[in-house]
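# step 3/5: fold
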Amino acid sequence: MGLSMNEKNRTVIRPGTVYWILCPFFIASGIFYSWGMSQAKPTDNPLFDMIATFLPAIIQIIVGLGFLLYSAVKRIIIDETGITSGVFLTPRKHYSWSEITNAYIIREAVAYSCKGYAGEKLIAKVPQAFNGYESLLYELEKRKIIQEDDLYEVAMGMVILNKIKLRDFFKKDNEK
């Protein structure tokens, strides 16, 4: 079964492995916290013990389920006509390349997120941990939409470094 021409030239940007690892981590830490606190009764007050045991665990489990839901639902599609994006639980909206006015890289902690705008409206914010981040940068660069400043150069350097495996730094010249 062959893909149509439009499906071959489209890129789906979605949360990367980091988000899928965080889901079970938060859920498991909530369960282990609940189990650990139930083993050590800190006070003689049973109501306080129950609150101290289960409230933090429930919060961690909810955060883990939120990451899971976000990872399963979040998709940004790039094709030859433009970008299709949507906020959580809202219909997806398609923006043609002529509607996208600017895009730039922002620095958040260690991630260099790319924000795209149609006029004053934010249409997509893609962190570096998303699969397809590199394709988005190349597409925006090709269409002369992204601001090529210092943060853009750093983000492109990070993209290149992400491609290089650690073992490649330690190869001898005769092994290449």
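# step 4/5: annotate
Residues 17 and 46 are 40 Å apart (CA to CA).
# step 5/5: archive (pending)
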